[in-house]
Amino acid sequence: MIPLLHDFEGETVLVVGGGPVGARKARRFAREARTVVVSPAFADADFGDAEPVRAAPDPDGVGEWVDRLAPALVVAATDDDGVNEAAERAARDAGALVNRADRSGGRDAGSVVVPATVRDDPVVAAVATGGAAPALSRELRRRIEAEIVDAGAMAELVGELRADLKAADVPSTDRREAIRAVVRSSSVWKALQEGTPNARQEADRLMEERHD
């Protein structure tokens, strides 16, 4: 299994199943994609910005929802194995990605595992156990959260520095060494806690020292 990042901006995600698992999946995808949740009943849970649709698709009717919505991803999250199987088949027939929320461990080729993620935009860190140990994924996510504080601000700072160095015709080897020095600098990371302008000043000072 190879981890990939997929941009769902402007896409549709279909979640089949309105229980707690379906709600959790819906909240995650609704941050970026139009997310429709189809279920005969809904758990007393927060579905975020997802669109709950009260319907009871049987194995023969799931395909109609896939045809109607043309989703990029179908999440099968019911407690009915027959419905989940039908959702998977319909997704594959339509060329959509599929996530079987009722399965752990071994999975069919082409299926999607939704990892535990940590965000400090534009930085995204993900960890997965192939569905075998969700509790471990959550624990590792908790640990990573403490490690990437201010990573998003660092990424934006480094992006600005790379653009400025390139515009100044600094050779690529020198650019890489300068950026590497910035991201490894404890003083720059500390300055980020006080604000990006302070961090930029510290990064500029660091690079001037290297140039001298």
Task: State the gist of this model.
By secondary structure, this protein is of the alpha/beta class.
Largest sheet: 5 strands, parallel
Please identify, by name, the CATH architecture of the largest domain: 3-Layer(aba) Sandwich
Q: Rough shape?
A: elongated
Please indicate the percent range of residues in DSSP E strands (runs of 2 or more).
15-25%
How many separate structural domains? 2
Can you tell me the residue ranges where pLDDT is under 50 for at least 5 consecutive residues?
A: none
Helical segment count: 8
Going by CATH, what is the homologous superfamily of the largest domain?
NAD(P)-binding Rossmann-like Domain
Residue share in helix: 40-55%
Overall residue-averaged pLDDT value: 90
Q: Count the E strands.
A: 7
What's the CATH class label of the largest domain?
Answer: Alpha Beta
* CATH topology (level 3) name of the largest domain: Rossmann fold
- Spatial ordering of strands, largest sheet: 3-2-1-4-5
Succession of helices and strands:
EHEEHEHEEEHHHHH
Helix- and strand-based class? alpha/beta
Structure description:
The protein is of the alpha/beta class and 212 residues long. The protein has two domains: 12-114, Rossmann fold (3-Layer(aba) Sandwich); 151-211. 46% of the residues lie in helices and 16% in strands. It is built from eight helices and seven strands, in the order E-H-E-E-H-E-H-E-E-E-H-H-H-H-H. The chain has a five-stranded parallel beta sheet with strand order 3-2-1-4-5, sandwiched between helices. Helix 2 runs parallel beside helix 3 (81-93), helix 5 (151-167) packs antiparallel against helix 6 (172-183) and helix 7 (186-192) packs antiparallel against helix 8 (196-211). It is elongated and about 70 Å long. The mean pLDDT is 90.
